[in-house]
């Protein structure tokens, strides 16, 4: 299986490409913003493609040609302002969904925010509400497609070493989850067709990732 990782140079994206390249039957194509970011992925043996997520849909669709799945892990980050939140987390996500349709790629994994329901927008602090709103509409757009999607809602992301153990479901109380574990959840999701058409929250827990993903 060949996987296009959108936002490959991000913290989850780098972990994901690394883990994909460790699997004999998986191969990553890292979508990056500029050529200077390529060396990390080339050393792993991954393909790279340089595409600006703020560009046009056709460029993203071309980057997706020949892959079996797309994983959207891109994010504008907490310090880039509302304009980048709109251009990356909303418009970039929707353009990637449309690019998948254009390229004929059915399998799509969206990394979202922990809670993207309407009430979460109203409850969010003013500085965070635009991000939640962007994720809400991107998720809604994906749900209305005929893609084989899964939406993953991670808890509070931390850079600690992963434990390989999580808790998943919906209406969970927010907790921390290692980015490394989120990357492994993505791989387990790609390998389990029973996750198609589903979405779930993920936090640190006590059960193995494989067991949890098999039962979501």
From TrEMBL:
Transmembrane segments: none annotated. It comes from the Bacteria. Residues 7-192 form the NAD(P)-binding domain. Gene3D superfamilies: NAD(P)-binding Rossmann-like Domain. This is Sugar epimerase. It comes from Sutcliffiella cohnii.
């Amino acid at each position: 299986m060949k996987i296009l990782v959108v936002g490959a140079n991000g913290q989850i994206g780098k972990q994901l490409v690394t883990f994909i390249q460790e699997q004999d039957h998986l191969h990553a194509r890292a979508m990056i913003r500029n050529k200077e970011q390529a060396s990390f992925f080339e050393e792993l043996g991954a393909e790279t493609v340089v595409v600006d997520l703020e560009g046009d849909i056709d460029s993203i669709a071309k980057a997706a040609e020949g892959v079996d799945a797309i994983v959207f892990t891109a994010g504008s980050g907490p310090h880039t302002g509302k304009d980048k939140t709109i251009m990356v987390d909303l418009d970039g996500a929707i353009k990637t969904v449309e690019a998948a349709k254009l390229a004929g790629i059915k399998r799509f994994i969206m990394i979202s925010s922990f809670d993207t329901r309407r009430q979460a927008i109203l409850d969010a602090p003013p500085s965070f509400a635009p991000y939640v709103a962007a994720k809400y509409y991107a998720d809604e757009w994906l749900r209305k497609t005929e893609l084989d999607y899964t939406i993953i809602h991670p808890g509070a992301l931390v850079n600690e070493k992963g434990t390989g153990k999580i808790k998943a479901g919906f209406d969970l109380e927010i907790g921390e989850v290692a980015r490394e574990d989120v990357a492994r959840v993505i791989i387990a999701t790609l390998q389990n067709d029973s996750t198609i058409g589903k979405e779930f929250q993920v936090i640190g827990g006590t059960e193995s990732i494989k067991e949890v993903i098999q039962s979501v």
